[in-house]
Design a protein that fits this description.
Blueprint (H helix, E strand, L loop, with lengths): L4 H37 L5 H17 L3 H18 L2 H17 L3 H17 L3 H18 L6 H13 L3 H12 L6 H15 L4 H22 L6 H11 L3 H9 L4 H14 L3 H18 L2 H39 L2 H60 L11 E7 L7 E8 L2 E9 L3 H20 L4 H12 L9 E9 L5 E6 L5 E2 L7 E2 L19 E3 L7 E4 L1 H4 L11 H9 L6 H16 L8 E7 L1
Antiparallel strand pairs: 1-10, 2-3, 3-4, 4-5, 5-8, 6-7, 6-9, 9-10
Helix pairs in contact: 1-2, 2-3, 3-4, 3-5, 4-5, 4-15, 5-6, 5-7, 5-15, 6-7, 7-8, 7-9, 8-9, 9-10, 10-11, 11-12, 12-13, 13-14, 15-16, 17-18
Length: 620
């Protein structure tokens, strides 16, 4: 029996080796399949499936010791979540990856964290910050990770240059990406995607030719590698646009998954088709989505994350220098004999040099921490300044209302942020009441400044006893000048003779007011639809009139009322608003406004306000 033991042992070893190889092959096959699924799902909106696949791929790659794939997958999770699920959650995933990289002292993790943060900054149009982060990531890669592919950083920089309109830089970055060794198919398709987008930055005379040339290469790469880039839908829309097929452009734009890009491209399609009412409608939708996405809070979090990565880089550099210094000390202790004198001299020279570098690295680290403290202090200062700005803004709208025999008027404005873009005003001149309610596109500080300018101009024109349509035209003439940001305001402007109840009014793209009547106890006022103020120059506004509104309450409001959303994104709604008004016994204007505000709060049920809320009620 003894002579069989070596054979048995050999067979056992072969069996174990075979099992291990089989398990390794199965793991490799699983990882490859999960990778394919990840890249297949990335351009889609199948969020649950994408997150499930990437979680499994992270786990498998970590067990297999594939550090680069582990962090690439995590970075894809952060980018996908940021762009297609929630920017807040995407920023949180990026922060978790950053902290994990620091804890495990992973250079690959720090590199991919830099790329992720740069991508998020670019999405928020923080282009200068994004470009600096991409450049730092490339420098870090060249120093610590010379053998890895840097195409992601070059393509990220290409996106930044596209967003800032630098066509030649886009082409330069995509050339560098395409020249990277072992570039995978998705990278090749993405590179040609940016070259298609860059064609749209060409002179109009060359745009069609350059787009069609890049589009041909993009199509070929897309079919060869079976990969749809994030920009596939947008490129098809642009291709239809440069070739003059605007109906096809519109149909393709309607299918874009991203609401921001969908509304933007639908606006351009309707403009090319000379359908200005539809173009205006979707431009307003685009501005609303853009303002809600690019919130100051997400920008702050992204900036803080970028600063944190700078701190980690400084710490990492300090560790490298310190380790090098310790190595020099060890070799010094080994040196013997005559070589010790020579080596000791060299050592002192190199030690002094590296100590200076180490001191510099720690100085940078200290500076980074000081910047972090300054950021916190600046945040507190900004919050204080915004509180003051809110107080100033609230002082610009009336809190004391005019008194006149038979007049009952009350209004309220609640900004969704520290400062807002809604407005209202009133002015009593003898027996004539001038009033307005408006809603500036966007929210926050830019909207509040536009609001202040609009309010000041309205009061000046009302004091000149201008009619509502004339006020709207004069406002439009003033506000379209040097309006590079494309801001506008919807307004309802009214003038009431308090003796007769005669109402003159002009509606500039605003929500229809509700007027009380005896039959239905409240209905929307039928009126002419004019364009908003500040959007297009030299347009005329149609004024209207009602012989008398005596005894009929008039409710003017902004869409923060009827479009108020709860946590399930369900809107308050026009019919719900009318139902409340029809079942409310009118006592006074103040009571009506308070009831509607309370009902909005009840509908939100703890959800944050999605828009400014302004309500005015008048009864003569």
């Amino acid at each position: 029996m003894k002579k069989f033991k070596p054979i048995q042992l050999l067979l056992f070893c072969l069996l174990v080796l075979s099992t291990q190889m089989q398990a390794q092959n199965e793991t490799t096959a699983t990882i490859e399949q999960l990778q394919k699924e990840m890249y297949r799902l990335y351009p889609t909106h199948d969020a649950d499936e994408f997150m499930d696949v990437t979680e499994r791929l992270k786990e498998a790659s970590l067990k297999a010791g594939e550090e680069g794939l582990f962090y690439r997958t995590w970075a894809n999770q952060a980018s996908y979540t940021f762009s297609k699920i929630s920017r807040q959650k995407g920023a949180e995933i990026a922060k978790a990856m950053n902290e994990y990289s620091q804890q495990h002292d992973s250079k690959l993790g720090i590199y991919y964290s830099s790329l992720t943060n740069a991508g998020q900054a670019s999405t928020l149009r923080m282009e200068d910050d994004a470009l600096k982060l991409y450049q730092k990531a490339i420098e870090y890669k060249q120093k610590f990770l010379p053998d890895i592919n840097a195409s992601a950083a070059y393509l990220g920089a290409a996106k930044v240059y596209y967003n800032t309109g630098q066509k030649e830089k886009v082409l330069e970055m995509t050339d560098k990406a395409l020249a990277e060794p072992e570039l995978i198919g998705s990278g090749i398709v993405d590179a040609w995607s940016y070259r298609c987008m860059a064609a749209m930055l060409s002179d109009p005379a060359d745009r069609k030719e350059e787009m069609n040339r890049a589009y041909k290469e993009w199509k070929k790469a897309k079919e060869e590698y079976k990969y749809n880039s994030t920009f596939s839908e947008l490129i098809e829309v642009y291709h239809a646009q440069v070739n003059g097929d605007y109906q096809k452009m519109l149909e393709l734009a309607k299918n874009i998954k991203s609401p921001l890009e969908r509304f933007r491209m639908m606006t351009h399609a309707y403009e090319n088709m000379d359908k200005w009412d539809e173009a205006l409608r979707y431009f307003k939708q685009y501005k609303r989505v853009s303002d809600s996405l690019n919130s100051a809070e997400i920008r702050k979090q992204t900036s803080e994350h970028a600063l944190q990565i700078d701190v980690i880089r400084a710490e990492n550099h300090a560790k490298e220098l310190l380790l090098h210094n310790q190595t020099l000390k060890l070799w010094t202790s080994i040196a013997v004999g005559l070589l010790a004198i020579v080596f000791f001299s060299v050592y002192l020279h190199r030690r002094n040099r590296h100590m200076k570098e180490l001191t510099t690295a720690y100085d940078k680290l200290e500076t980074a921490y000081e910047q972090l403290e300054e950021t916190t202090a600046a945040k507190e200062r900004i919050e204080s300044e915004l509180r003051i700005a809110r107080e100033i803004q609230m002082s610009m709208v009336p809190s004391v209302f005019p008194e006149h025999k038979g007049l009952d008027i009350y209004a309220s404005m609640t900004p969704a942020k520290e400062v807002g873009g809604d407005l209202y005003d009133d002015l009593l001149e003898d027996d004539t009441l001038y009033f307005c309610v408006g809603d500036v596109s966007g929210k926050g500080v830019p909207a509040s400044l536009f609001m202040a300018q609009t309010t000041r101009l309205f009061r000046t024109l009302a004091k000149e006893h201008q009619m509502p349509a004339a006020i709207a035209k004069r406002l439009n003439d003033e506000l379209t000048e040097k309006n590079d940001n494309g801001m506008f305001v919807t307004m309802f402007i009214g003038q009431i003779n308090l003796t007769t109840g005669h109402l003159y009014f002009c509606n500039a793209g605003h929500n229809p007011p509700v007027i009380g009547d005896e039959e239905r106890h409240g209905s929307f006022l039928e009126m002419e639809s004019n364009a908003p103020i500040g959007l297009w120059p030299a347009i005329e506004f149609v004024g209207e009139e009602i012989k008398s509104i005596k005894g009929h309450p008039l409710l003017i409001y902004t869409d923060g009322l009827n479009e108020a959303e709860n946590k399930n994104h369900e809107q308050f709604g026009d019919e719900h608003m009318l139902d409340i008004l029809r079942h409310t016994d009118f006592k006074n204007a103040h009571q009506v406004v308070d009831i509607l505000k309370s009902e909005v709060e009840r509908h939100r049920n703890g959800a944050e306000a999605n828009d400014d809320l302004t309500i005015m009620c008048i009864k003569v």
